[in-house]
Design brief:
This protein has two helices and eight strands; from the N terminus they run αββαββββββ.
Amino acid sequence: MHIQKPLFKVLRLAIITAAASAGCAVDATTDNTATVESGLYSPYPGCVCDANNPPSDMTCFFNCLYAPSVTFYEDINFSGASFSTMKDRDFVGWDWNDRISSVRVPPGYTVYLYADWYYGGGWLTLSSDTADLRNYGWNDAASSIRIR
């Protein structure tokens, strides 16, 4: 079966859009639209997931599509603006500093929230989805994150 290149590009764009909307390595921008962070996640050596320049290797492409990611939400119960990552951040950025209220954690991963920049101050360890950080005294309190 031969697929014409324009159709392949349309299908690839549709899959990338689905991946971004499913929380696959996306990051909220200041206008609350989702874009994939360039070089954010590498499911195996030589495979970098980037929606702006999708990998041409289809195995790599589908690994990017189904790559796990931790998603951070501005409101409790996994609502409001969000960003997803698998990358440690010594500072979550001014847009997200002291703003995280709930977190989705993929099975097998652990997230460490830190009160201060560069992993300083107190910390909270999460190994599963947490719908309300107020229950731990951590609502709108994180400034840096580690993911293991």
